[in-house]
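ok trying again, last paste got cut off:
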Amino acid sequence: MDAKERTAVSRIKSTALAAKVTSATDAAAVIRPGDTVAISGFASAGTPKAVIPALAERIHEVRGQGANFTINLLTGASVSSETERALAEVDGIALRMPYQSEPTARRKINEGRMDYVDIHLSHVAQQVWEGYYGNVDVAIVEVAGITETGDLIPAASIGNNKTWLDVADRIILEVNSWVPSAMEGMHDVYYGTALPPNRTPLNITHVADRIGQPTFRVDPAKVVAVVETNVADSASTLTDPDDVSLAIAGHVLDFFEHEVKAGRLPADTLLPLQAGIGNVANAVLGGLDRGGYRNMTCYSEVIQDSMLRLIKDGAVAHASATSLALSEKGLAELTDNIDFYRKHITLRPQEISNHPEVVRRLGIIAMNGMLEADIYGNVNSTHVMGTKIMNGIGGSGDFARNGYLSLFLSPSTAKGGAISSIVPMVPHVDHTEHDVQVLVTEQGLADLRGLSPRKRSRVIVDRCAHPDYRALLHDYLSRAEAHPGAGHTPHLLGEGFSFHERFNATGSMLP
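nice, full thing came through this time. structure:
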């Protein structure tokens, strides 16, 4: 069904909510300076298309008159770059939570002009319910349609939308007729979560299990505006895998074969996979068909292009996530074959897609990117040179801490070799050595399981560090181990950050 066919029939079946249809400009007018605004969107999918640009224009006009106008912005994870940039460029965001990936917002965060709270994605719903961020004044949520009874059909992501609809005082709905109507039924929205001491187990023992309903509930009295749109989701940017990404993928796939032979992974299906966003993770997933695996499963945050191909080829039987992070080609593939993919994909709220209980029970193989790791396996995935935020921790901690296997992947160098991803000591720790089992670069794979710190350090340097940095790291290690009082985890505290200090002073970590 093309866009013209999708707009021919109204997606708003509820008479009461149809009466609240208005323009994006009028909808944005209900947002007041200082409001906490929660919006839909996860990895750009499902981001509101009309109200946020209208709000940014209004903020720009108010600022032009010499008045201040900022909001606190809560999301599922990253949202479309256009949306974040529109608000950041007019200095419209006072506080941002929980994850961002847009350069303008990132710069203002690092300049101290925007507050940013970086938290595990599985924690967002609970913290909002507990009032950590004050009252949620407005929720802006994109949906694919509204039923006769007033239930909401989710769009291409769920993220925190269920929570936003529950807690917000005022709700603005964007009904996007671009979303294929056949996507209805792909979603599993769970309404059984509770705060302690009233929690009960989540009855998910297999990736395809459903424990909720296909729609969102909403109190119609809280809906103050409904805006109709017909705009495609922003496509995720993916490039063809380069030699480095392919080499990393090759090491991971060899590791899987080794684990199968050791009897630690099922031969045909492995265990449910989780992969972060990016070209390296996409390359790993894309190479899985090499091992002849069939009927695998995925329990993750996002579904990327390579996952669609694995589903279509029969290598993956079912994939569960909270969002579809697809390129333009992937979006076209999904929409053209939506009836097929609906049978093999389930989208859930992120508090369920990232839930530690489910991750531990299913035995997830977690694969996530990193900025750097130190010689003992501590990982920094968020802060450049220890101080400047890149994106955020996202869901990597939810899966790394609780998964059956925890792998962190990265090229061994950055900035044309000026930065080593293996350093003596990371200046910011997101994942401690206790949550990191395997490190992988294009140089090789370091299996850290069962190794003491001193043995771990040698394996990491020998197998993961770039040859240009290997001698430097061995020299540091030898001197640290020979230092009086070297202890269990030898370090030269005066030199631990020497690689980073040298880069800041000269532009390279190399002497």
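cool. The radius of gyration is 23 Å. The mean pLDDT is 94.
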